[in-house]
Design goal:
Length: 170
């Protein structure tokens, strides 16, 4: 399913709900077979402006794409907290939407307009992201008493337990 503009251009985007600092190493964009196979595509990343996604891109790249999946290496786009990666579409180049996927990560905006979430699928945008996380620590409690505190990893192996004994963890 392709989305086209009748005039002007728009932006098809995917929301990446990352918390904390992150680096976008590469993006993969799906170019539908109904589009021109040898075309240039502008890809941009948008951070937050307050609680809304910005209309001014943090990063932009224009590259040629072929039909199918296109992996584009990036020069370490540094983002912070949730962001959108989007590409431009118009009356001759459509935005490919996969309606068989879980909705609520696809966004759209017309040139100069605000971002809107779309229901019914996701655009063909994937990203290879390295992230720092939110710099949180974890505590593990067994039966109301602390077992370990200050963990920087999100897992812990508890030892010294007795078989056939019920324990309650938090």
């Amino acid at each position: 399913n392709n989305l086209y503009m009748t005039e002007g251009s728009g932006w098809a985007g995917q929301w990446f709900p990352v918390i904390g600092g992150s680096t976008v190493n590469s993006v993969s964009i799906y170019n539908s077979p109904s589009n021109n196979p040898d075309t240039l595509m502008t890809i941009e990343a948008y951070g937050l402006f307050g609680t809304l996604f910005d209309n001014d891109p943090s990063y932009s790249i224009t590259t040629s794409v072929n039909v199918g999946w296109n992996e584009i290496s990036l020069d370490d786009w540094q983002m912070n907290n949730p962001f959108v990666i989007a590409y431009e579409f118009n009356d001759s180049f459509g935005a490919a939407m996969d309606v068989s996927t879980t909705p609520y990560y696809a966004l759209y905006r017309s040139d100069g307009g605000a971002w809107y979430f779309l229901e019914g699928g996701n655009f063909g945008i994937r990203a290879n992201i390295s992230y720092e996380g939110a710099n949180v620590t974890y505590n593990v409690y067994r039966d109301g008493s602390i077992v370990v505190s200050g963990l920087t990893e999100n897992s812990h192996t508890d030892t010294g337990l007795a078989n056939n004994t019920a324990y309650e963890y938090a």
